[in-house]
């Protein structure tokens, strides 16, 4: 029991540290990708090739003057960014970061917790994140912040419906809500035992899910809650110092977790092609699988950034029309199509 608790604590600490590290250096990668797409150099002063820029940014946030508006609700003003950061960090505990490791004859899972309703847990935690934005925007007692918070809550609620409906079709197909089982079902990827990744069976569901993920993360072209040209800075207009840093950092953590969810649900998770034909021992395969999962996550993080610096943002009416009049009907149609296909398969 003691060994199990120590292992879980090490795993929790590792996931926590990796999440913070990836989120921090996503800010660096964002600027480098933007610079590449715009034929610029990007950050290059803080260390070789600017690799210490995230550390410099973190120190700047810590040492900046902290201003809390006199007319704000101080308790809620502080609670908002804390809640946004907390909910962003909580979602990663159910991601299967790899297969099992065998150490000293005992088997250890590279997943902190594997609930039989894991997908629902992640959805529930992510949906709470909107409260952090809403509370922060309202507590600021600023009309631009309030408008940004209202936009954020309306946007997230609208796109959560389409995302949830896309997952219903996914669950009909896989028959489980456990992220561990979903990853295990895709073992072998597109080779080995010829188990296909779920994106092959659910291409429309994947497309709906990734569009909704952009909206949930408030990423361009769905960054209407911030929208500097209209709302100054949106829901975090009045924030400074590390409280502003928490809001900005939570966005990158959400992007990391969303990329991990997309990789796990639709692209095999830690599985990779021909993994069962390499002839390597179990632990080596598990380590390679973990590296492959992070390679997939890195690709989707790059995809988030690529879209941001390529496509302009929607008008707000276009955003709502896409969510309610396009994605939700497509999600419902996907459920019927998936149900019909599964019924035909059972009949055969």
UniProtKB/TrEMBL annotation:
Which PROSITE patterns has this protein been placed in? Answer: COMPLEX1_ND1_2
Database matches in InterPro entries: NADH_UbQ_OxRdtase_su1/FPO, NADH_UbQ_OxRdtase_su1_CS
**Where does this chain mainly localize?**
membrane
Q: Which residues cross the membrane?
A: 6-28, 75-98, 118-140, 161-179, 199-215, 244-267, 287-306, 326-345
Give this protein's Gene Ontology molecular function annotations: NADH dehydrogenase activity; oxidoreductase activity, acting on NAD(P)H, quinone or similar compound as acceptor; quinone binding
- Single GO BP term: aerobic respiration
Gene Ontology cellular-component terms listed? plasma membrane
What's one Pfam family here?
Answer: NADHdh
* Keyword vocabulary terms for this entry: Cell membrane, Membrane, NAD, Quinone, Translocase, Transmembrane, Transmembrane helix, Ubiquinone
EC number(s) from the headed UniProt entry:
7.1.1.-
Q: Which reaction does it catalyse?
A: a quinone + NADH + 5 H(+)(in) = a quinol + NAD(+) + 4 H(+)(out)
Q: How does it sit in the membrane?
A: Multi-pass membrane protein
Q: What is this enzyme's class at the first EC digit?
A: translocase
The entry's localization annotation reads: Cell membrane; Membrane
For whether the record's keyword set contains Cell membrane, the answer is: yes
What does this chain do?
NDH-1 shuttles electrons from NADH, via FMN and iron-sulfur (Fe-S) centers, to quinones in the respiratory chain. The immediate electron acceptor for the enzyme in this species is believed to be ubiquinone. Couples the redox reaction to proton translocation (for every two electrons transferred, four hydrogen ions are translocated across the cytoplasmic membrane), and thus conserves the redox energy in a proton gradient. This subunit may bind ubiquinone.
Q: Which family does it belong to?
A: Belongs to the complex I subunit 1 family.
The subunit field of the Swiss-Prot or TrEMBL record says:
NDH-1 is composed of 14 different subunits. Subunits NuoA, H, J, K, L, M, N constitute the membrane sector of the complex.
Q: What is this protein called?
A: NADH-quinone oxidoreductase subunit H
What organism is the protein native to? Answer: Ohtaekwangia koreensis
